[in-house]
Description:
Elements: E1 6-9, E2 12-16, E3 27-30, H1 33-41, H2 48-65, H3 70-78, H4 85-99, H5 104-126, E4 135-138, H6 144-147, H7 154-162, E5 168-172, H8 179-190, E6 194-198, H9 203-208, E7 214-217, E8 221-223, E9 228-231, H10 234-243, E10 248-251, E11 257-258, H11 275-278, E12 279-280, E13 283-284, E14 297-300, E15 307-310, E16 313-315, H12 320-325
Parallel strand pairs: 4-5, 4-7, 5-6, 7-10, 8-11, 10-15
Antiparallel strand pairs: 1-2, 2-3, 8-9, 9-14, 12-13, 15-16
Helix pairs in contact: 1-2, 1-3, 2-3, 2-4, 2-5, 3-4, 4-5, 5-7
Amino acid sequence: MPVRALWWESGKLAYIDQRLLPGRLRVVRTARVRDVAQAIRTLAVRGAPTIGVAAAFGMVLAKAEGGRSPDAAARLLASTRPTARDLFVGIEAVRRAWAAGEDALAAAEAYRERIVEECHAIGISGAPVFRGKPRVLTHCNAGALATVEWGTALAPLRVAKQRGGEPFVWVDETRPLLQGSRLTAWELGQEHIRHAVIADGAAGHFMKAGEVDSVIVGADRIARNGDFANKVGTYEKAVLANENHLPFYVAAPWSTFDISRPTGDSIPVEERDEEEVLELAGTRLAPRRSRARNPAFDVTPARYVTGFVTPEGILPPATLAKVLRGHRRPAMRG
Length: 334
Ligand code: MRU
């Protein structure tokens, strides 16, 4: 059974608590919107498309609980994390239906289905690039856990494997919360895709040694000109790929593209608790008096992107603005 990050079950949202993986596969079930907001805030549920779908179902729970207007429920969920565009698209998909007196659950289910279908389509768009035995580097987790099913960056590799290819994946461990070594490595293991976890600082070494053929990552928000936000450390991987003449791909569904941002300069970058950097798995490693900074994302300029792997094919950054005009979707400002 392939991994699924969350699903709807008898009036509740069921989700995998991603903080506990790979050691423990715990499914949490909740009927409270506050729990959904907290799960998103604490990264129990994470990855741009997944938090959009979780928030869509959170809106359904808020309606069933009563006591909140559609706008108040939307504000609660929107306050959890600022960077991923998908969060705001997912919330708006259900807020509109609820405010119009339509079936909120049907709207959330339709949103989930759309995301899953788009991620599968990303896999089909991108698979031809990864034919044979490519050695591909990825950062963070852009697999099924981050997108409900299939993944964005991992979807083309999954489809390539189904077609008989033998991809090998270099998995950046992705400090400080280790989404690469904990989650991507776990997902690849489930799918029997060959991989090796490397320290974040090792990517340049393997690129320079000729052991990496290409890079593919997901995104949390993509501006009209192709600048994009993704997990902190992505920017330096893009610069390194450019230095080593390697193709660099960014895979995302339409909910991640933000036509209202002309460039990446206006993408809000979440800064998280400094303890995430100062500690490792709850153990303080840095000196007691040391302080830290903890941006969860960075913004990579479009000039480093070879192509955006979308549900409708691979788009070079220069064509993005034109294509996006055909994909205007309602989203709350966020
Ligand atoms: O802080 P996280 O774990 O939610 O960050 C996730 C990422 O940066 C992913 O790479 C991004 O959401 C793309 S997921 C398909």
